[in-house]
TrEMBL record:
PANTHER family found in the cross-reference section: ABC TRANSPORTER ABCH.1, IMPORT ATP-BINDING PROTEIN
InterPro entries (alphabetical): AAA+_ATPase (IPR003593), ABC_transporter-like_ATP-bd (IPR003439), ABC_transporter-like_CS (IPR017871), ABC_transpr_LolD-like (IPR015854), MacB-like_ATP-bd (IPR017911), P-loop_NTPase (IPR027417)
Biological classification of the source: Bacteria, Bacillati, Actinomycetota, Coriobacteriia, Eggerthellales
Organism, as annotated: Berryella wangjianweii
PROSITE patterns the record matches: ABC_TRANSPORTER_1, ABC_TRANSPORTER_2
Family annotation (SMART domains): AAA (SM00382)
Presence of the UniProt keyword ATP-binding in the record: yes
Top-level taxon of the source organism: Bacteria
GO terms assigned for molecular function: ATP binding; ATP hydrolysis activity; transmembrane transporter activity
Coiled coil: none
Keyword set includes Nucleotide-binding: yes
UniProt entry keywords in alphabetical sequence: ATP-binding, Nucleotide-binding, Transport
GO cellular component, one term: plasma membrane
Name of the protein described by the UniProt record: ABC transporter ATP-binding protein
Length: 231
């Protein structure tokens, strides 16, 4: 990930909101990085830009060396579907559908052979340490921690290089949250790049490195943020 002077301005009836104000940083392949900031600091906006769901108003974003601004809508859709796995606070699983089917879902839109889909889904579920006895449970009949591990498996099933997680433990108690964070650490161990957005220092502590965001500005260290009086 290479972000160069990213800006994002929202235009609404109420006026302009400058959500990102010149954000620059890079993340190397295989790093596990937390982006931490309070509510309204620009975390979700940044996540949407990094996930190629939104474009910066100004600045340049390179993902795996590709300038995202030069990609067509079809190319962006392909990048989102195959290079990035998304994990959300609310899990976003299909209820009344089994765990295995949920994880196979992203493969429906790819060239993955039908016979290969279940094998890949099982491998992804194994990677997040979900016991096999739950694979045929409906996704609304497992615990919250299990749901989030299923969501991570679904994000993994296309073998993306990058996992983007927005407050993935926000709906979980601390013990269950730890299991989910262990699952992210395991992904880093197999070479995935993990970017985890959070407002909780205890969660950020699991990452190799933390970037701080305040009022749309990004700081590489807590000290740098303190130096400009944003603490
Ligand atoms: P966070 O995720 O850290 O809570 P956001 O990125 O959601 O922060 O918001 C940053 C700023 O941008 C806030 O002032 C928010 O109100 C504003 N904002 C976010 N999304 C929109 C939008 N779609 N339209 C207008 N303003 C927005
Ligand atoms: P965890 O500590 O893993 O989050 P819980 O204490 O929430 O687990 O749940 C314990 C067990 O009960 C889980 O293994 C799960 O299979 C089952 N369970 C939890 N919630 C539900 C539910 N809504 N419907 C059916 N089974 C559930």
């Amino acid at each position: 990930i290479q972000a160069e002077e990213l800006h994002r301005v929202y235009r609404t009836a109420a006026g302009l909101t400058h959500a990102l104000r010149g954000v620059s940083f890079s993340i190397m392949p295989g790093e596990f990085v937390a982006i931490m900031g309070p509510s309204g600091s620009g975390k979700s906006t940044l996540m949407h830009v990094l996930g190629c769901l939104d474009s910066p108003t100004k600045g340049r974003y390179l993902l795996e060396g590709r300038d995202i601004a030069r990609c067509s809508q079809d190319e962006l859709a392909d990048i989102r579907a195959t290079r990035i796995g998304f994990v959300f606070q609310a899990f976003n699983l299909l209820p009344r559908t089994t765990v295995l089917q949920n994880v196979m879902l992203p493969l429906l839109y790819t060239s993955c052979p039908v016979g290969e889909r279940e094998r890949r889904a099982r491998a992804a579920l194994a990677a997040v340490a979900l016991p096999e006895e739950f694979f045929d449970h409906k996704s609304n009949e497992i615990s919250g921690g299990q749901m989030q591990r299923v969501a991570i498996a679904r994000a993994l099933v296309n073998s993306p290089a990058l996992i983007l997680a927005d407050e993935p433990t926000g709906n979980l108690d601390s013990v269950t949250g730890e299991q989910v964070l262990d699952a992210f650490a395991a992904l880093r161990a197999v070479g995935k790049t993990v970017v985890l957005i959070t407002h909780e220092p205890e969660v950020a502590a699991h990452a190799d490195r933390t970037l701080y965001i305040r009022d749309g500005k990004l700081f590489e260290t807590y000290e740098a943020m303190k130096a400009v009086g944003k603490v």
